[in-house]
Amino acid sequence: xxxxxxxxxxxxxxxxxxxxxxxxxxxxxxxxxxxxxxxxxxxxxxxxxxxxxxxxxxxxxxxxxxxxxxxxxxxxxxxxxxxxxxxxxxxxxxxxxxxxxxxxxxxxxxxxxxxxxxxxxxxxxxxxxxxxxxxxxxxxxxxxxxxxxxxxxxxxxxxxxxxxxxxxxxxxxxxxxxxxxxxxxxxxxxxxxxxxxxxxxxxxxxxxxxxxxxxxxxxxxxxxxxxxxxxxxxxxxxxxxxxxxxxxxxxxxxxxxxxxxxxxxxxxxxxxxxxxxxxxxxxxxxxxxxxxxxxxxxxxxxxxxxxxxxxxxxxxxxxxxxxxxxxxxxxxxxxxxxxxxxxxxxxxxxxxxxxxxxxxxxxxxxxxxxxxxxxxxxxxxxxxxxxxxxxxxxxxxxxxxxxxxxxxxxxxxxxxxxxxxxxxxxxxxxxxxxxxxxxxxxxxxxxxxxxxxxx
Amino acid sequence: xxxxxxxxxxxxxxxxxxxxxxxxxxxxxxxxxxxxxxxxxxxxxxxxxxxxxxxxxxxxxxxxxxxxxxxxxxxxxxxxxxx
Lengths: 455, 83
Description:
Chain A: This is DUF3570 domain-containing protein. The complex is a heterodimer. Chain A is mostly beta strands.
């Protein structure tokens, strides 16, 4: 039997492994003789592999990536990721991943622009910062470095059941997280149908700089008459302690179905229950009078539990010259925040070893029930309130382009450039006259660039 | 409290979705699919659901930190102070 350039010894076709300039093989009609030959090759191949896998294998590097993320005038980040794996004699595979990212820049505090300069106390209580008239208040003290380590054990794929167990740890300046996850999947119907069930638990500890603000307490601002001691006493009255925690339990059920020789479907349902401190300790709201003038800034307060549902549907299709996937996701939770996401990746092989890939994504969410762009002085304070635009009405768009080149063996070098735009919207709140001249729901534009290498 | 909320969710929307998935699988999926020797296209590396999982994980992390919803393709997750 003569294999086409795209086939390996197991008869599998790997896009991108063919010779430069050679298109992928067109669909072939089923051939019993060919199929038997392929099956023989496959069995022989497995025998060789089994004979070779009596010993533990050395660690192998799998992927490495470096990414830059930059918001226009706001957060900038650099992230490096590396993954490696080790295959043991019993075919158990251990995957490890190391991630390091560094963030700096400014993020929206939640306050609204004003006709005069505004001054805010820093989260630590050490010093203050000012925002010019008409500008969106951004807290420029945002900086952090995060180290994340994760490991995942998976059982041999040859058994009917495939199981995995994962551990996760992450450390930041003011946030530590520990997690464990497990999953099992099994194929049915000649492996055309796969069912998956998994669970994950994460325990996060927050240690906000300056302590946790008392819910909806008014920010203390230094005055000329304040001594350091008197300011500290007043600041301490707005705090209710140091660290707190957040517990997340996730359940995920999935179904993957092969529809035909080129087309498969994936459907997932996810349930996520989060309990603990869910407030953002660095966000606050402007409390404005009827004319829109800020009279106070109050620290936000969110409920201490959240139950989220997600429904995810994706189809993936093998084309002669590439691959395309289209997915739809619906999310809703008991904060009454719901969202729709449409996403697609389309890959086209210019040659056997060079491809381009287009990434499109559209996301639209409704506001959480306690989202308010500001508070009013003539109304009683609600129990919960947040002006964080990320839980307000929001539309986002992603346009991405990736270029990849297959090198010798399975090695691959790829470069990815993505444009991401967030456009917050008013959730129907009446705007006081004094605020109407300002950009209250500014868009955020992001560029990210990534270079990755598969070993 | 959490147990009650989760139980309520599982017995409500969750139970319906699970029932729908299983029903779809048992009734409709049995007639779908291909024979083992027809898997040449499906066995392509770029057809794996976890192909480009590094990219997908990085994207999910960005969206997790910048939007109000998360999860779907994978666990919704905690584990980061970015949200």
